[in-house]
Amino acid sequence: MTDPDWLRLNRENWDDRVAVHVGSEFYDLPGFRAGRSALRPFEPDEVGDVTGKRLLHLQCHLGLDTLSWARLGAAVTGLDFSPAAVDAARTLAGEVGLDAARFVVADVHDAREALGEDLFDVVYTGFGALVWLPDVYRWARVVASLLAEGGFLYLAEFHPVSQVLGEDGRSLAYDYFQSAGETWDEPHTYTDGPALTRTKSVQWQHSLGDIVTAITRAGLRLEFLRERGTTLFQANEALVRVGPDDYRFPPGHPSLPMMFSLRASKS
């Protein structure tokens, strides 16, 4: 049964992660301050030129992806439910001279109310965001309400198929169609750094079918859906490194989709 306090637990957990993530090698804030982009190379290629476009980043965390889009010319707004994360994002924006970037504290489900009448040319959601949402259909309706006519959603995520594998990368450990929230109690976050003090979180598994159906039912038109055989870190023991942030199954091992990206427009 899903913990009824899931939203509080998740917010506290992510508030606690901020101090760890700010100091982690994983997020590499010194490198970002020096000019490193936090975006994956295929993302700007698939989104296209964002110069002068209003871009909203939902669940923006520390704002590295948000500010990377700002460096490419977008007028950015980042939204996150963690006040600590938004404070960190605002500080970082000032440090890198992107003071025009706006960051808002709000749960993603309340984004429409938090942003007033504002509409956006691009709504962007990055890796590891959807597992924190209990209802992707509700999320998709919120996204559609935030888009201007002719605008589009761009979503880049870990493929749900990759989430069912065990640590060995060869066995099935989780149910692909698991829809109930699962409570986790983990002392460490996914980065390097010290242990957390608020260790409980609740996450949901969403099938690719549910994600795409939610988006189209919200009135958005799917332009493309691309599946990739690589991922950003060594998610299981069978993966091998083939690039700075690229891991895949070795030759001779059956290949599975590890990430996907999609673009869906409002017309």
Automatic annotation (TrEMBL):
One of the Pfam families matching this protein, by short name: Methyltransf_12
Assigned keywords, A-Z: Methyltransferase, Transferase
Keyword Methyltransferase: yes
A GO molecular function held by the record: methyltransferase activity
Protein name, UniProt field: Methyltransferase type 12
Species of provenance: Saccharothrix espanaensis (strain ATCC 51144 / DSM 44229 / JCM 9112 / NBRC 15066 / NRRL 15764)
GO biological process, alphabetically ordered: methylation
Residue span, Methyltransferase type domain: 56-153
